[in-house]
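#onboarding

Welcome to the new folks! Below is a worked example of what a typical request in this channel looks like: someone posts a single protein sequence, and someone else replies with the predicted structure as tokens. Don't worry about understanding the tokens yet, we'll cover that in week two.

Example request:
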Amino acid sequence: MLKTLTVSLNERSYSINIGENALLDFPHFQLKAGDRVLITTNDTIAPLYLPTLTTMLEQNGIKTDSVIVPDGEKYKTMATWNTILSQLLANNHTRQSVLIALGGGVIGDVVGFAAACYQRGIRFIQVPTTLLSQVDSSVGGKTAINHPLGKNMIGAFYQPQAVIVDLKCLKTLPPRELSAGLAEVIKYGIILDYDFFVWLEHHIDDLLALEPSAMRYCIAHCCELKAKVVAADETEQDIRAILNLGHTYGHAIEAELGYGNWLHGEAVSVGMLMAAHTAKLLGQFSDDEITRIKQLLIRAKLPVVKPESMLPTAYIPHMLRDKKVLSGKLRLVLPTKIGHVKVVDDVNQDLVLQSIECC
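Example response:
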């Protein structure tokens, strides 16, 4: 049985459906898919789940086309976005067609941006297959592609028609990708929910083992937390910025080292520790709390040390391209205690460099 949550955005509201075998649950597709879809996935996911999804839809009278793109963050580009648009055009898809994003965060972001642009906007459905995309990137309508000078700098806020989470997809997820997803899970505890952080301290081993009840609770709770934030601030004018804890530092790592060399969650892991050290240097966070966060990240098999090849000064140019920057001044999401963060304006760059050195 699927658990259903709602992202409440008035006429743009939609459901998040979570459960085992959700890929086979046609009613949740039927309500949104019309009679023709283009499924976009990557060459890793395609052999695992594309035949299942295609067969289920076609047996229920929906005509399907598909496009398979290369796997990896380095392919979150305008070229991949253009491939999807070209497939839509070549197969004469109309405004009544629906895009389905079958894959992780890269697929979801690129497909969502293509949906936002094709004929000035068509419907799309998120079918996330990684933990990171199930708890974070598939929810909230952020769509984008990367640019060599910055991550997610070209995109649009564009909400899906539905998010369909099949827990069984996690069984084929490589351990490194599972850990990368746990970085975003831990983030929710740090920014919004101390009790959830404590729950993670007690259940992180269960999550690494894909224990079904723990994973089901974890994903649903993260989606509930994000849905509330998105409902309050859809286009990140205010509170939604807190979801970016560690991302300003982490995006700098990804851009500098080349997209895909560090997974997004790995970069966010180190970025959250850098943010915690920045908060400590500002006198608003304790050593004990940093230790608790670091220990949980280590138990989740995530990196807690910055890349050796990247000097602290290399972070600043990337961080100054962050979307939160105002008038050339750094704005950072920083913790005040586990379970609470705030956005701090005009953070001194020397202090930022010190915090990077701490990792």
